[in-house]
Amino acid sequence: MAQEISFRSDVSVELVRSSASDSDVLFAARVSTQGEKTLGAAQDESLDASRSKGLINYLMRDRHGSPFEHNSMTFYVQAPIFVFREFMRHRIASYNEESGRYRELNPVFYVPGPERNLVQVGKAGAYDFLPGTPEQTDLVSAEVRAVCTEAFGSYQRMLDAGVAREVARIVLPLTIYSSMYVTMNARALMNFVSLRTKNEGSRFPSFPQREIEMVAEKMEAFWAGLMPLTHEAFNENGRVAP
Fold it and tell me: Which one is catalytic: 89, 165, 169, 196?
């Protein structure tokens, strides 16, 4: 029995587990001058980091980056495959993605929502994206839906005929959703966010594709809740990864 095809215009990000707080930055930094005296702070989960806001800001401002690596966040992400191919250009994280060789893929595909800008203006590296006309929006939606529906039909027919999943999947477009776990530390996340979000406060402007920016925004929101002082210092210093 053929599965019913569905379309989404969003991405999903869940924080699965974490060991990340502003105090992690502090004990890692202070070992430089205090050595073994930092052990107590490193083991104290109730340590109040707010009194050391200045140290975190100093580390961020002067780009002493390694103290921001002594933490961990694992996210579960659902997004179209073309987002994951951009994401995995960042060789600063650990990834495990669902496999089209080992499971039959679900017929869930990405289609841009009506708020998604469609018109590209400018030169490479400095594009502006402007809203499309209603006719362009309707055309994109109709074409994406038609192609995905036909492609998944081909995929299903090959599976039904006994063709291996790893072969049948080759007809599927990059709009199909996949899922993965991604684990990174705060320094790596700052690098990712600085490149994959567009923010007026950034010292170095970035021009991310909107779909990966949607993922980055959700990840940043989780991180900001875990490490508010670090996140604040990141913003105050031009959103540059230390």
Answer: 196
